[in-house]
Amino acid sequence: MNNSGVTVGLDIGTTSIKVVIAQTTGNQFNVIGAGNAPSQGLRKGVIVDIDATASAIREAIEQAQEKANFKINEVVVGIPANQIEMIHVDGLVSIANQNKRITYADVQNVAQQALSHSVSSDHDVIDLIAGEFSVDGFDGIKDPHEMIGVRLEMRGTAYVGPSKILDNTRMAIQKAGLVLKEFVLAPLAIGTSILNDGEQDFGTVLIDLGGGQTTTSIIHDRQLKFNYVDLEGGDNVTKDISTVLGISYKNAEKIKRDFGYADPAQASVDKEFAVEVVGDHKTKVTNEHYLSEIIAARLEQIYSRAFEPLNTVNGLNMPGGFVLTGGNAALPRMVDFAKTILGDNVRLFVPDQIGLRHPAYTRAMSYAMFASRESMTQQVIKQVIMSRREEDSIPPVSQASSQTNEYVESSELSTKPLYNYNSNVDEQPRPGIFSRLTQTIKNLFRED
User: Fold this and answer.
1) Cα-atom radius of gyration of the chain, to the nearest Å?
2) Domain locations in the chain as residue ranges
3) Is 33 exposed, middle or buried (0-12, 13-18, 19+ CB in 10 A)?
4) Is the C-alpha dihedral spanning 315, 229, 410, 405 positive or negative?
């Protein structure tokens, strides 16, 4: 098939690998194929076995290729928010052309200059978002291409992370037989892809409930302003079920999917089911309500941990409220339970594209969507980023994609992590609806 406008998003998650193939035509973003495979070689969102991860990536890629009847060569890969830093950067260059017309080569030069002294040797740039350009002192410019001037300035925010995470990801992609088109930062891509204009402008808390970790972010003024990673997720919920009921991890995952509810108030004591206890020839009977209590004990801990750092930056009363997504958000009655801790302004995001109607696909879809909407100027900046650790020089600007998909402009970035919102939220989280139930469970299986 014609590969014009095709973007492939790759989500390398702790519990599963997701691939989304999308084609952009004008303003239309259409998913044409998807694949997923169980993860291997990852722990808490970080690659610990490159060969195993590469094998899992190949499996997911092959599945997506078969569904789309399309050969995948290059991918856009999301990077988790572990240990990321947000750095304000500035660049200034003189225009060398005799006619003083600004070209994309000048944009490359100013991006290189902005990053030249801003990043430590053990960190690498994931993304650089240009807040604004200035030409001869006239600021507020979003795209300086073809403007006339003698001096070009750029102010923006660089998102950087540990080099080892990016290098291992590059290696796994290479061993999977793929070309890395670009990295995107997971919460930035998700937030600016799935939130509506008002939610991005006025501020929204995004909680990505993954298998290996939970990421809490604030999107405001169309930028990522705050981020917090808790190394607990759906995998911890499954481990709790396994330990409390004395069953295998595989069986615990199955009954979580078949019978699990996030909110015990919505689960029934009368609905019983049998479980195979390890070391016991007889099956044990339990019920949905007890299972839900085990699940909710861990979820209460996860939400309470997200509550505390948000409270320190006055981020609990954002106009856009809380948006939940990620595979662990798929548990029935998750929104109802989250409201007991976070308040009433909570909703769940689920992709509405055919074949992706599960929150576990949000990341891969967002990566493809984010990359497909990049302006030509942003694509040129990405060339600089992707070439920083390569021996070869930056590709000529003529090799950059000429794609001109609709681009949502970003407003000016702030060097502050978050504006000081007025919040009437109490200093402590609201008491969990079942703190009396399972404190002993949380004490036994807390991962300090």
Assistant:
1) 23
2) 6-82+164-191+355-399, 85-163
3) buried
4) negative
Whether the full predicted model's pTM is greater than 0.90, yes or no, is no
Residue with tokens 């030409």: 135
* Integer Cα distance of 46 and 165 in angstroms: 7
- pLDDT in single tens digits along all 448 residues of the chain: 455 689 999 999 999 999 999 998 878 889 999 999 999 999 877 899 999 999 999 999 999 999 999 999 999 999 999 889 999 999 999 998 889 999 999 999 999 999 987 788 889 999 999 999 999 999 999 999 999 999 999 999 999 999 999 999 999 999 999 999 999 999 999 999 999 999 999 999 999 999 999 999 999 998 899 999 999 999 999 999 999 999 999 999 999 999 999 999 999 999 999 999 998 888 899 999 999 999 999 999 999 999 889 999 989 999 999 999 999 999 999 999 999 999 999 999 999 988 899 999 999 999 999 999 999 999 999 999 988 766 433 444 544 443 333 323 333 333 334 443 433 444 444 444 444 444 444 444 444 4
Q: State the CATH class of domain 6-82+164-191+355-399.
A: alpha beta
Helices (H), 161-287: 163-175, 186-194, 197-202, 234-245, 249-259
CATH architecture of 85-163: 2-Layer Sandwich (3.30)
